[in-house]
Amino acid sequence: MLRTLATLLLFTVFIKCIESKEPIRSYVAVENKTPTKGFIHEMTVCDSQEKKILYRIKTSRSDIDTIVLIDHQTKNIVANLEGIWGDGTFNVTFSIYDSKLNKWTDGTIKRIAHIVDDDYAIQYNNHHLNTDRKWYSKKVKIYYTTNKEYLARFRIRTRWFNWSPIKYDIQVYSNKIPDAVYLFLLTIMEHRGLSNE
User: Fold this and answer.
1) What is the dihedral sign for C-alpha 190, 150, 77, 157?
2) Which residues of 94-122 are buried (b: 16+ CB within 10 A; e: fewer)?
3) 77-84: Cβ within 8 A, 24+ apart
4) Could you report the per-residue pLDDT of 105-154, keeping only the tens digit for each?
5) HSE on the CB side for 181, CA within 13 Å?
6) What is the dihedral of CA 96, 97, 100, 105, to 10 degrees?
7) Do residues 148 and 133 touch, judged by C-beta distance below 8 A?
8) Interatomic CA distance for residues 110 and 112, integer angstroms
9) Positions in the chain whose pLDDT score sits under 70
10) In terms of C-beta density within 10 A (0-12 exposed, 13-18 middle, 19 or more buried), how is residue 156 classed?
11) What is the dihedral of CA 32, 36, 38, 40, to 10 degrees?
12) Where are the domains of the chain?
């Protein structure tokens, strides 16, 4: 009995340590009410104080849906995603530009359907990640599949009025994975109804 209690206490402390980890970067993603011509959905990614625009995320729909991540300062596309993520079908690939190596690296996102909600499995440059989200929560955690290292999380902010823009707080805890991966996940989950649940 005492051993079980000690194990439970140790496990609780371990979980709290993981959750209290300080982010190395934070962003705020804001849904744009009126997307530019040719796009169905746009988000602006700002610093945590919402003073400086860092990225724009633009989504277009056709036979193959597309998301592009644009560096706001240079106006260059730094990552793109193509695929289908409708209700029943889910097939997504993406490419992220690494300016240090001057090359694009590909990855995939797969949906893991559960009875009540969905999680996602991400493969990028020999890294395997998963998301964790409870059906009752607006918070999504991203972690390594093998060692459960906590990499990032995002959550929707509470809106007091329907006309106020939808905003997400994004916190990044590691430099091992490009932030574009988290921004793509957020965009796909937003399209699939994260803010409406």
Assistant:
1) positive
2) bbbbeeeeeeeeebebebeeeeeebebeb
3) 78/180, 79/178, 79/180, 79/183, 79/184, 81/109, 81/184, 81/187, 81/188, 83/109
4) 999 999 887 766 778 999 999 999 999 887 667 789 999 999 999 999 99
5) 31
6) 50
7) no
8) 7
9) 1-20, 34-39, 86-88, 115-116, 135-136, 193-197
10) buried
11) 10
12) 23-196
Residue 70: which residues within 8 A CB-CB, separation 6 or more?
A: 55, 56, 57, 58, 76, 77, 78
Q: Which two tokens stand for residue 44?
A: 């602006």
The amino acid present at 197, given as its one-letter code, is: E
CATH of domain 23-196: 2.40.160.200
Tokens of 162: 């329907």
Structure pTM?
Answer: 0.83
Question: What's the length of the chain?
Answer: 197
Please give the pLDDT value at position 94: 97
Residue 152 CB coordination number (10 Å): 26
In 114-187 the beta strands, taken as DSSP E runs, fall at 118-124, 127-132, 139-144, 150-156, 167-172
